[in-house]
Amino acid sequence: LRTFPHISTNMTCLYLSRTAIEEVPWWIEKFSRLHWLSMSGCNRLQSVSLHISKLKYLEKVDFSDCGSLTEASWNDSSSVEAVATDIIHSKLPVLDEASYSFPGNLINCFNFKFNLDRILLSQPQIDYKSIRLSGEEVPSYFTHRTTGTSSSVTNILLPRTSLCQPLFRFKACAMVDSKSSPRDGHFEFEIQVSCRFKGRLGKHFDSPCRPHKFGKLKGIHLVIFECCFPLNEDNAAQAELNYEHVDIEFRLSNLIDTTSKLEGVGIRLSHEFPSPE
After folding, report:
1. Fewest Cβ atoms nearer than 10 Å: which of 89, 171, 233, 259?
2. Where does the C-JID domain start and stop, copy by copy (predicted)?
3. pTM of the model
């Protein structure tokens, strides 16, 4: 298969992995019911139309191992800003601003040498449930980062209004190393994130652990995702106890491959998100 298929636009899933397709055309937008697009291993894929961002039901996009993709592959006759205004959107209740989709899996796209810090800073409206890509360093965009193999970010100063909000939000990045894995195929793992809010005189309260599931291949990869912890009325009342800091802990869980490990984590609190211009 060398060209994007002219098939029913009522499809909800398209599995086009390891084909010789060279372009995702502008009329991808006609697949209005599409939830899942897999094009991993399409080594001849060179161009993806930004019209893919008009698919409001699209939940998962996999362009891993597409070795010919570059940052220029995402250039389009329509500007990102213009595309963003057409999106009706998001299933995530915390993302109410206009946003556009970003590919969720860019693992082993070695020619895709974009500056992730620039992308995240210049496009605050970018929409993703998670992004996975090859990388061996937590980007500086994440203002609170660990050193070495620590999996906890501690003593983060909280803005006064944090615990008065219905949601405590932050963006997270975890660097997962599975180079020593005996498994060569695709496998799933889970990152559990928990928070401890700390105040004066040793007072604290713990949030429930929130699991985030991912799939990956052998190697060192970055996973970037958004965390959202509901704060109920009881927790909101805790703000009166002058909680000033938060510890955020990450735990990697993988029952199939016990050799994988966290090599670094980073977070960026919601009040540090850049504002759309």
Report:
1. 233
2. 133-211
3. 0.61
More confident residue, 123 or 98: 123
Please name which of 217, 45, 225 lies closest in space to residue 127, comparing C-alpha atoms. 225
Residues 142 and 266 in one domain: yes
Give residue 205's pLDDT. 80
111 and 14 in a common domain:
yes
Number of domains in the chain: 2
Phi-psi region of 10 (alpha: psi -120 to 50; beta: other; left: phi over 0): alpha
Pairing of strands 210-216, 126-127: unpaired
Flag whether pLDDT at 88 surpasses 80. Answer: no
pLDDT in tens, 154-201: 888 887 666 677 778 888 888 888 776 666 666 678 889 998 888 877
| Structural domain span for residue 234 | 138-277
* Residue 129 sits in the same domain as residue 210: no
Question: Are residue 15 and residue 98 in the same domain, yes or no?
Answer: yes
How many C-beta atoms lie closer than 10 Å to residue 232's C-beta?
8
What tokens appear for 225 in the block?
A: 């995702």
